[in-house]
Amino acid sequence: MQIFLLGLRYFFIDLIGGVVRFPFWWYTHGLVFVARGGWGWISGYAKSLALNVWVKNLFVPMYGMYDWQSRIISFFMRVAQIIGRAIGVFILIILVVLFLALYVAILPVTVITFIYQFLALYV
Description:
The chain crosses the membrane at residues 7-28, 48-66, 86-119. By secondary structure, the chain is mostly helical. The protein has 4 helices and no strands.
């Protein structure tokens, strides 16, 4: 009988403790985990676009043609590529920030909605 009561006690302590600890985990370890994942996603996308390589080779002529027409064409093509790729990274940054804002807001919105629905049952 004592083992049953001990098991029951641990069950309820873990259940209530988990419910109480969940919001703290959500805004500490969970938020750090999601933010690191977003940063990894952004840095991986930026590496796949190789923006630093495009900037480093901005004044190097394409296809090894060193006449002035080729240099001008190469410069403007690379500038267009850099602008387009930077816009892509910027859009991804905006999406990750919006996702982080959604992550922060989802817990209180869920609790408020739950309370609202619970109170609507008894009014």
